[in-house]
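User: For my dataset I need records formatted as: sequence, then structure tokens, nothing else. Please produce one.
Assistant:
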Amino acid sequence: MYDIARQQLVTLRDSLRFAVSRFNDAELYYGHGTDNAFDEAVYLLLATLKLPIDKLDPFLDARLLPSEVEQVVEAIRRRAEEHVPVAYLTNEAWLGEYKFYVDERTIVPRSFIAELLFNDALAPWIEHPELVNRALDLCTGSGCLAILLADHFPGAAIDAVDLSSDALDVAELNVMDYNLGERIDLIDGDLFESLAGETYDLIVSNPPYVDAHSMEELPGEFRHEPIMALGSGEDGLDITRKILAQATTFLNPQGVLVVEIGHNRYELEAQFPELPFVWLETESGDGFVFLLTREMLAEAGH
């Protein structure tokens, strides 16, 4: 099939039709930026051909060079047959208007915390951006949240920590791309272990939070991502518990902790009934990201 496609596809329109058919036939999982075969195919083809990703119509009837047909067909094949996420095929991922380099050394950037920063949803607890002088991103991965923090809080110095040196290599590429090397310090370490004596006005984390049962049932697309960046013990909360146990020590007075936990809200509340979690509203609901201040943690004995 793909050998025939290499011989027969002429225009971008031809390639788009072929891609949508292959994606529908492959019953792909769309969890990295799109939710249907058409949008997935449009993005993959435009990005592969280095065309503007928001301008399809002007190029639909453009004839592809033989080398471009080869690139397109191979990208379609890998997405359909191997279920490789598009971000790994194009080496780019987007959070809002921010573009990041990504490959299989780190998970594909996605976070409700990014949405909260875009919408100034931390404003009731952080009244003015200039009040954040130091911020910490735990489990930084590709560095995307650290970069968003640096942009949202222009006076802040940012520490970004990850246990994976491979992920930090990817993060360094993104930090350099945004010219933030003087403001973001990338640190190889396990959560707070390399931060003795440091304190912060804001700590954010999008840690691994997939429980053991869900890990066993992950779609093929997610199995291309680093396992250590997804799973977090039997209930998905191993790392979150470690963060809660130590966060008070690393927060300044009136400091704020923001953590994403996926679908684990009720399990977390059951385990920590003494903590007055503030659940932040996102487009998908209010059960995915919690906020606690240093004072809330301290009053609950943490």
